[in-house]
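So, can you check what follows?
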Amino acid sequence: MTGTRAGAATDGSAPACPAPLGPVPLGPVPVGPVAVGSVPVAPVPPDLARRATADPLFRLVAYALEAAHGRPPAAVWSAPYAFHLGSPGLVAAAGWPVAAAAAPRTDGLVRLSSLGHPADSCDLPLTPGGPPPAAPAWAVRPYALLRALARAGYGRGGTDLHVQGSLTEAAGLATAEPADCAMALAVADVHTPSGTQPDRDELARLLARALPDGDDALRRAVLFARPGQALPSDAGEEGRHVDFDPAASGRRLVLLAVRGEPAERTAELARAVARARRAGALSAWPPGRRPGRSVLVLLPASRLPALRAAVAEDFRGRGRPVPRFLNIAVAGAARREE
């Protein structure tokens, strides 16, 4: 998915990505003794954190887990953000990933960290039932997921886990579902015999039970998508996929996200869509189940400069923040980063 993200911000602003633009530090990581109960693991070969040709986000999560928890990851997984199509019942994946790095433990402890919450890393006992332990707000969902995985037989001994996305919620794409899938796949991987791939259908069912507030259709896109194709929201890996490749037909798919106060977003988004249609947009629809701060816009590739200019001119002329534009490539499913 690296190539699909290059140059994806089309309004001159950088995408909301915490990954550094320069190389990740290549020197030794200052760590103390490995905590009792951790399982010695070999780095993801060849050491992903220090591989100059690797995607910066994947290098970053590998390095961050090592820096936060004193040991290299045994696996790094990436999972794409996903979206609904304007056609009912179809979903697809976007070429922007969430990444999760994991290493197994044996002492029933989970250690959670994220660069999005640098002051809120936590160490929690992995209890299968009863009230959950107190945790930072961001870690409540990952802990619930690890608990469910442990009950299903994945990671009962505990896990060191680091998760990081390439976009923030300001982009308007759902963040929970790709993070859920990246973490589930990473944890299942490091607690599964070597050479055995995690069962994605089983994980999809587990996620639906453990996190019922999530969007199961988006999770299926994350787990089973194919590049240049959409899939029915209830389909698995072998389900019927349909062609959806705007670039192949001379079109562009762009995410348009408005900024400003929440109370104003609905009206501002409607205004942005109206301007986009006048400038040549073929269709526009929300990427999630409910309207939010963004829409996906399908347009002829030749009309993109005019569309951007028309929307920007309207917002700038009213003294409003210019919406963000983000290129969307139709990507494949979650994968292990080697």
Q: What stands out?
A: Residues 6-36 have pLDDT under 50 and may be disordered. The chain is about 30% helix and 20% strand. The CA atoms of residues 108 and 158 lie 4 Å apart.
